[in-house]
Specification:
Blueprint: E1 3-8, E2 35-40, E3 49-53, E4 58-61, H1 69-78, E5 86-88, H2 94-97, H3 100-107, E6 111-115, E7 125-127, E8 132-134, E9 140-146, E10 154-159
Parallel strand pairs: 1-2, 4-5, 5-6, 6-7
Antiparallel strand pairs: 2-3, 3-4, 8-9, 9-10
Length: about 160
Amino acid sequence: MIKILLSAVLFFSFMTCSVSAAVIKNVDFGLQADEVVITFLPLSDGEASLIQDGSGEAILVNTGSASSYPELNKWLQRYKVKKINQLIITKQQKYYDSNVQRAVKDYHIERIIVPAQYQAEFQTEKWKENDLFQLTDNIHVDVLHASKQKTAAMDLSNRE
C-alpha cells in the first residue's frame, strides 16, 4: 500500500511579523519506494502543487500566473527539483497555466497533461472525464470531472 504524505507550506503575513519562504532552505523528504508527498506551493498569484515519489519522479500540477514564476522556481529549487517528469494543467486560466512554456524549457518537461477542451500551442496529452491514468508506478488518477464549458478544466482523484 502506498503512503501519501502531505506537505503544506504556509505563508502568513501580518503587520508586525511575517514568515517568508526564505526560512526554508532545502527540503528532502527521503522518500521510500512506496511513499508519495504532495506539496501545495504558496504562490502569491495562482496555483501550483508538487508531487514527488520515492523513485525520484516529480509531477507539477499547474504553474501559477506569469508574475509568480520566480516564486515557483525558488520553491522547486528548495525541493531539489531539477527535472519535472510531467506537468498537469487542471484549468486553462492565467492563474493555472501562465508559465507552461518557461517551465518546459527550464525543467525539461516531456509530458504535458491538460483537460480535453484545452487549446494549446504546444504538444499535450488531453484527458477526459472518467478516464483512468497511471502517472508513476505508485500514482494512479481518475478524471472525476472535465468541464464542457467555455473554460477547459478538470478535477482529479487518486486511485489505489
